[in-house]
From TrEMBL:
Domain of life, per lineage: Bacteria
Domain Histidine kinase/HSP90-like ATPase residue range list: 27-114
Any one GO MF annotation of this record: ATP binding
InterPro entries: Anti-sigma-factor_SerPK, HATPase_C_sf, HATPase_dom
UniProt entry keywords in alphabetical sequence: ATP-binding, Kinase, Nucleotide-binding, Serine/threonine-protein kinase, Transferase
UniProt protein name: ATP-binding protein
Amino acid sequence: MTPLEFHTLATPKAAPDLRHQLRDHGYDVRLCATELLTNVIDHLGDGTPVTVRVIGTAPHCGRTRIEVTDPDPRALPVLLSATVSEESGRGLALVDALAECWGVVQGPDCKTVWCELRN
């Protein structure tokens, strides 16, 4: 798998653009990548610069790693339990349900939220 790196501003238009860039990947990869991108829009604001990376792990692992890096190391994602009547709050729950694992790497001036999905 050829690594993909996508630099963009986190905007509603960026989500379909990202899905198009990932058209050769499975549905779960496209969904998790756009959910992580959408979290940046929702929690840091429209127009935040992001870098999205999609990387195949070592062949014996059989996983795809998705990373979304943004410039705010303090705004950490939180896994919520959305109620039936709430219209938002399910993005990270979807990632948690689909991914083998996920987490956050904080740097001094950025953070990367990542997840790995089995191929």
